Amino acid sequence: MDKGRLEAFSDGVIAIIITIMVLELKVPHGDDLTVLQPLIPVLISYVLSFVYVGIYWNNHHHLLHAVKKVNGPVLWANLHLLFWLSLFPFVTGWMGENHFSMLPIAVYGCVLLMAAIAYYILVLVLIRLHGWDSRLARAVGCDVKGKLSALAYALAIPLTFFNHWLALSIYVGVALTWLVPDRRIEKVLVE
Amino acid sequence: MDKGRLEAFSDGVIAIIITIMVLELKVPHGDDLTVLQPLIPVLISYVLSFVYVGIYWNNHHHLLHAVKKVNGPVLWANLHLLFWLSLFPFVTGWMGENHFSMLPIAVYGCVLLMAAIAYYILVLVLIRLHGWDSRLARAVGCDVKGKLSALAYALAIPLTFFNHWLALSIYVGVALTWLVPDRRIEKVLVE
Amino acid sequence: MDKGRLEAFSDGVIAIIITIMVLELKVPHGDDLTVLQPLIPVLISYVLSFVYVGIYWNNHHHLLHAVKKVNGPVLWANLHLLFWLSLFPFVTGWMGENHFSMLPIAVYGCVLLMAAIAYYILVLVLIRLHGWDSRLARAVGCDVKGKLSALAYALAIPLTFFNHWLALSIYVGVALTWLVPDRRIEKVLVE
Amino acid sequence: MDKGRLEAFSDGVIAIIITIMVLELKVPHGDDLTVLQPLIPVLISYVLSFVYVGIYWNNHHHLLHAVKKVNGPVLWANLHLLFWLSLFPFVTGWMGENHFSMLPIAVYGCVLLMAAIAYYILVLVLIRLHGWDSRLARAVGCDVKGKLSALAYALAIPLTFFNHWLALSIYVGVALTWLVPDRRIEKVLVE
């Protein structure tokens, strides 16, 4: 089974997720600056999620690049990842509309954590299919960065109830570390 | 006529269907747990439909993989299947918002049944084009699983008016049996 | 310049148009048959537009199949066609919500007419690029069916104000004649 | 890393942006001409944005055609461009609903300016990857037209507060100059 349609379908779903998030930025009534003001947190929330979905697309792109074949479990592990990504528009809108209050930030963190776990499962299913001595396995390595990110989200979620701005800063900080693309896979592929 | 654009178009439509369903999960006003509670049935309904649309994408992916050529009737049989799949967001939202009450569950079952019939028609049109002794025909076989699923939906629809939770359980049960990808086609293709 | 991305972009836009039309089928409040009744004209309107957009996708698929190259004017002629197709969700929703009253039917006809003209312009621009003695030109021929359809829409629009059911019947009738795929192009391609 | 998925993802996002803009054209209640009248500015705003997004797709298509390879920074420069394009539906709807009043026109100009800058950054990142003596660099040249367009937007934004119709005319005028596709790249590619 070839990976072409898996890539095409994932690209389609991720493209739609990243684009329909902007629909939460509702066109306001009125045409002065005061109507734009309540939209600022929604816009910031949108930017954060745009970056996160962009990170997943980039990493997915790199990961699939090293993939030779797919099977049934890979298709489902991929759909599982897409499911958690599909909840981004909801949690983004909820966090933005409530001006980054406590519970929405915690729920946003849960979706981040579940997406990270789903990505990790996808990597494991792919490595099991290709073998632990495959180029893919070497390219991904033990994925310290991915595990640390998941750990950061897991810590940020309970932290929200003490200081939700700190939790939000963790999400922003993790995103910044990922803006640098995954050079490990690129490196092994060039070798 | 090659099958590439048929796959690309189907991937596009299915990707959009699976993603816009999440728009039924409306961002609530307020930021405490009480506003999330009424969303739980909508979320469960979304998960069920996400799995069903995922099943159709997986099976469509497997089916098209064995296809060599397409013609006019195949294009229309495929659009017919996409039409019934496109009603998923509506019935999903309706079933979720009404907390799985009777009529929405019955209507959901009708869409499931019509999609199963449309898939079966697509298979028949494809087999007629490739011949009953083609690799495609052998790969699909007599599709007992597909026919039993359609039968289960057909039984669940009237059952709704006696015990709608039982009907819903049938939908969930059938989905679980399909989470296992269609090994018959994979097997024949590997031969 | 190759035609691959033109096909991919058109597939994407048409897939989205055909799918977001279903968003006009708003999830009703309540769970009995009475809430479904006002949705029936919206559903019928959706089916008609689904078939029309499907026809455009099929014919576009056939047309592009015979195309060897594209240039700037082709890209714009194609976008012009996509623009008129993009108005389908609006006119479909308006016609359905107003239970097929006069003005919406006339406006629907205007969009049908403009899409037919835009398709014809695309064909002309493609033939000018490939030459009047190309396989594409022979495959398309003088497109009597396309011209007669445009004529039918042009007649149906003023007719709406005398008998709008007759106008609607013309739209349905033309759609039925197109459900048969464009065998002319298929025939020449097989030669 | 190959450019195929970058093109596919960009096509997907741009196709969705250009199509969901039409959702701002809300289906009105009532079926006479008076309900269509307030939609005219929304429609005009939609046409302008459809042309602008179409221009970006065309130029992106031409640009990527000359590209041989992509890397991490290219993926992010591309996502940055898509981010600004994704704000088109919002500013289009806001400008249309407020009948082209002052502030929405200025904000529309800001999004135009940022998209132009993002496109320029993408070009620079691509040239840095391919080398200043590559066919890509020669094809793009010093991009006088792109720089003049950005300058025009930058001038139009403050101008809005003196005469917003003049600012709007500048947007329309720049769009018209771009409807002609980028012959420079086509020319060099043919050489």
From TrEMBL, chains A, B, C, D:
It catalyses: K(+)(in) = K(+)(out). Keywords: Ion channel, Ion transport, Membrane, Potassium, Potassium channel, Potassium transport, Transmembrane, Transmembrane helix, Transport. It is a multi-pass membrane protein. The chain crosses the membrane at residues 6-23, 35-55, 75-94, 106-130, 150-180. Its main location: membrane. Pfam families: TMEM175. It is found in: Membrane. Belongs to the TMEM175 family. This is TMEM175 family protein.
